[in-house]
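ok new one. same drill as before - structure tokens go in, u give me an amino acid for every spot. 337 of them this time. try not to just spam alanines like last time pls lmao
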């Protein structure tokens, strides 16, 4: 009811006024004409609807004045209601409301999804890549013109302020696997990170950062990864001058193309192994895959590049596989990813 109010508030106002007129009419006929409740209700209905049926009994002078006032007020109210209803039909507000209602029901059933705060340039770039990787994403954005575009594209969204706990809860933060906060102000991102970490202790949080001084604050607040778009962009531009071919190669293995992925990350618990403890050689042999293990991320976020076959992988680690798109798709299918 409260969620729909912002969409249909004019119609709700009109309905509230109509109910008020009925209450006024009933009370007025009871007080002025000493009618019973049923008689007053009957008189109010035939007066407001202007159908012209016979009165319960002849009205007094004050009763007639009151009836005239009631007719004039109700006529204007019904005109306002009809205008509001027509406006909602013409502008498509009703359709948007019911589409939003249906979408909210789907969001409630999501689990292991990504919550994205802010649909600006950085946010939309993140959204595009996440969708290409077949991840469910719920966007929190407060600008109506942006949420309308998201709805037209059939995407999940919450229209609200990401710094408010209610918006995060509506987006299913408690059941989400990850959070990306790409708001323009560092203070807002810090607040979102703090709130999200409190609501979900295990969620992976990636935050945008604009100032060097804010990076440590975001990590203290609970962000796992802090990205500075300006610094990353500058480094990438310099990289194309210094190591042009290397940077083009990195672009070629981007996750952006979805089914053309060359590199994937897999939790160690999802990987079968005939040996104990699990080793790189044992994992590759058990999987019978042509993909190469190019790196490991330990539970404390230490990266081991090109580990040896005898390397023992600890619990809660991540394993990075590299291969051509067909090999990657075959590996994902065998792991049910």
């Amino acid at each position: 009811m409260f969620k729909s109010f912002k969409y249909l508030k004019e119609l709700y106002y009109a309905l509230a006024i109509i109910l008020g007129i009925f209450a006024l009419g009933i009370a007025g006929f009871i007080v002025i004409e000493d009618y019973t409740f049923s008689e007053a209700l009957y008189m109010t209905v035939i007066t407001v609807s202007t159908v012209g049926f016979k009165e319960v009994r002849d009205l007094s002078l004050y009763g007639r004045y009151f009836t005239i006032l009631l007719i004039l007020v109700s006529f204007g109210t019904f005109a306002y209601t009809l205008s509001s209803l027509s406006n909602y039909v013409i502008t498509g507000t009703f359709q948007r409301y019911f589409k939003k209602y249906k979408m909210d029901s789907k969001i409630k059933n999501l689990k292991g999804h990504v919550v994205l705060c802010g649909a600006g340039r950085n946010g939309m770039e993140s959204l595009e890549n996440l969708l290409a990787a077949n991840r469910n994403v719920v966007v929190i954005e407060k600008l109506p013109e942006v949420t309308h575009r998201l709805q037209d594209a059939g995407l999940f969204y919450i229209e609200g302020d990401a710094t408010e706990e209610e918006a995060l809860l509506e987006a299913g933060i408690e059941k989400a696997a990850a959070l990306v906060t790409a708001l323009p102000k560092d203070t807002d991102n810090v607040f979102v990170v703090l709130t999200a970490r409190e609501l979900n202790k295990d969620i992976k949080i990636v935050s945008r950062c604009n100032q060097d001084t804010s990076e440590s604050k975001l990590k203290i607040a609970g962000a796992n990864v802090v990205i500075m778009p300006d610094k990353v962009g500058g480094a990438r531009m310099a990289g194309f001058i210094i190591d042009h071919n290397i940077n083009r190669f990195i672009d070629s293995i981007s996750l952006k193309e979805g089914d053309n992925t060359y590199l994937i990350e897999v939790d160690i618990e999802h990987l079968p192994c005939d040996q104990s403890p699990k080793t790189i050689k044992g994992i590759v042999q058990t999987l019978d895959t042509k993909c190469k293990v190019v790196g490991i991320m330990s539970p404390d976020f230490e990266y081991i590049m090109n580990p040896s076959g005898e390397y023992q992988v600890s619990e809660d680690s991540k394993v990075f596989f590299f291969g051509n798109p067909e090999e990657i798709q075959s590996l994902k299918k065998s792991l049910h990813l």
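Residues 261-334 form a domain with the Alpha-Beta Plaits fold (CATH 3.30.70.1450). and btw The mean pLDDT is 84.
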